[in-house]
Amino acid sequence: MTHYHLWIPNIFEFKGGIQVYSAFLLEALQKIAPDAQYDVFLKHDTRAFPRFLPETRFHFAGNVPLKLRTGGFALQLVKAAIAQRPDLIISTHINFTVVADYLKRLLGIPYWVVAHGTEVWDIPKASLRQAIHNADRILAVSEYTRDRLLAHTPLNPEKISILPNTFDESRFKIAPKPPHLLHRHHLHSHGPILLTVARLDPSQLYKGYDKIIEALPRLRAAIPNIHYLLVGKGEDYSRIEKLIQTHHLQDHVTLVGFVSDEELADYYNLCDVFAMPSYGEGFGIVYLEALAAGKPVLGGNQDGAVDALCQGKLGVLVNPHDISEIANTLIEVCQKKYNNSLLYQPEQLRAKVIEVYGFSTFTETLTQILNQ
């Protein structure tokens, strides 16, 4: 019986790209090998919610004071590996691989690591570079992330497998604009609504939500009743508020703030176009969620959005630094003049993103990688 150790930052009490990917990875593994043993180590969580096999053993470090948590978590991983001798360690964040490298040299335990995006594009610490070099397999979420990793770190390319992000197709579906959200935000059902879902953090300006705001005056000239909803919270909130005031867009932009997982799908249904012209995204699960809701999607042409949107077959790719191109392209998309008819066929758009990035495809790809 195969015994897996999975090392994960968290999956239950915070939802971000790494967390969502990690949860799907565990779920897919358990679908492939339901009789295997699973010990899952979570650095920041304090409890688990039902989702995985009941036999799964979760180990939490979230109650350890933050100052001591990194060291305490590392000690927990070492002690468990020495005691249990798992057949494979899978780390969903590069920061844990130094411990995995130590255990491989000490006990011969193989380990895999997931490469998501910015954390592996330029690895400053020599110990991390050595640890990812010694990994038995690297799961890259996109070709873009793989290429960026190889450009900065000398690795055997054959060691890297592409396992793209996936999404919950049962949560994100095609539906009419929710009346309660139209009422909440004082919007009309016939007005074009743009949407971005992103963490508003100074470290994530690459997501390009500020570029949408800068493009809005040009958009308004062509589409006077257009409105922009920005979902997310973070320390960049006050800067965005000032940017809105500078461009006199108070009546055309709504900073929605935090939205619960339960209500997120309603916001995708509320919009007419999902836009996130990023330039530093490893992949972007939000693109898939919007596509599953049957919405036209705009992303940047210089990062993992190229993978998520299948080189433009599933959406629109623009220069994320060119405000004029962003504005003009969004005008075309909103007016249904963009030269990609799939964008305006919601059912076909949803079917295609499920075919390419659905959980079944994710599981099949992981099966092939494991069989290697």
Poorly predicted runs are: none
CATH architecture of the largest domain: 3-Layer(aba) Sandwich
Number of domains: 2
List how many beta strands DSSP finds: 13
Provide the CATH superfamily of the largest domain: Glycogen Phosphorylase B
Mean pLDDT: 96
Structural class: alpha/beta
Strand order of the largest sheet: 3-2-1-4-5-6-7
End-to-end separation: 18 Å
Major sheet, described briefly?
7 strands, parallel
Number of helices: 15
* Overall geometry: elongated
- For this structure, the CATH topology of the largest domain is Rossmann fold
Strand content: 15-25%
Helix share of residues? Answer: 40-55%
Please write the string of helix (H) and strand (E) elements. EHEEHEHEHHEHEHEHEHEHEHEHEHHH
Q: What's the gyration radius in Å?
A: 21 Å
Q: For this structure, what is the CATH class of the largest domain?
A: Alpha Beta
Secondary structure blueprint with pairings:
Layout: E1 3-8, H1 17-32, E2 37-42, E3 57-60, H2 66-84, E4 88-91, H3 97-107, E5 111-115, H4 118-121, H5 126-134, E6 137-140, H6 143-152, E7 160-162, H7 179-184, E8 193-197, H8 209-222, E9 227-231, H9 237-246, E10 253-257, H10 261-270, E11 273-276, H11 285-292, E12 297-300, H12 305-308, E13 316-318, H13 323-334, H14 346-357, H15 359-371
Parallel strand pairs: 1-2, 1-4, 2-3, 4-5, 5-6, 6-7, 8-9, 8-11, 9-10, 11-12, 12-13
